[in-house]
C-alpha cells in the first residue's frame, strides 16, 4: 500500500495557480500521512469515512461533507479511517479570504461539486479559461462557509500530553480528575489550573470534547452508536446520545443523515 507524499505528481507547491484539487481513496494508500507542511493552505474534505488532522496543538476531526482548513506553512498530519474517500483542495496564500488558523468548515453541496470538478482539471489551467473562472467562484464561496467546532485542543505540556496519550489508548477510561492528578504527580488544584491555562477548558469539558472527536471518527468509520457508547465508557446509549446532541444539536443518526443530504 503506497504512501501519499509530496512527490512531483502530488506536490501542490509545484504550481502557482490559485487552487488545485486532488481526490483520494484511502483503500489505495496508508491510513496515516506523517507530519509535513506545504506553502499552500489545504482544505481536507471527507466524502466518505472520516479523517483526523493533528495541527496547531489540536486534533481536528473531519466527518463526511465537512472539511478542516489548514493554513499554508502549518505543520500537520492526517489519519484516515479505512473507508475514507477524501478531496484535498490546496489554496495559494492570499488567493482567498480564508482563516489564518485551523478550523472545521461545513461544505455545501455546490462547493463540494466545484472541488470535484477542479480535481479533474489539469494543474496548469489558464487563469482565464473555464477552470480559472471556476476557481474564482469556488474560493469566493468557500470563504462564506460556516465554521464548526470539531476539534480538541491538545497542549504540548508533558503532563497534558501524558493524559491525552493515555485516553487515546483507552478512550473509555473514566478516572476522576483527582485520579489523573495522582497519575501525573500533581495536586488536583494544580492540574485544574494547568488544564485551563493550556487548553482553556475544564478537565470535564476537555474530556467530553475528546469523546466527541473520537465518536465522530468512529461513527463515520462505520461503528454503531452502541459500540461507540460502550468504547467510550458511557453507562448507557442514551447517555452518549444526550452528550452528542448537547454538543452538536442533533442525535448521531440525524447528524449523519443530514451529512448525506448536504
UniProtKB/TrEMBL annotation:
Pfam families: AraC_binding, HTH_18. PANTHER family: HTH-TYPE TRANSCRIPTIONAL REGULATOR NIMR (PTHR11019:SF199). This is Helix-turn-helix transcriptional regulator. The keyword Transcription regulation applies. The lineage of its organism: Bacteria, Pseudomonadati, Pseudomonadota, Alphaproteobacteria, Acetobacterales. It comes from Pseudoroseomonas ludipueritiae. It comes from the Bacteria. Residues 161-258 form the HTH araC/xylS-type domain. Keywords: Activator, DNA-binding, Transcription, Transcription regulation. CDD domains: cupin_NimR-like_N.
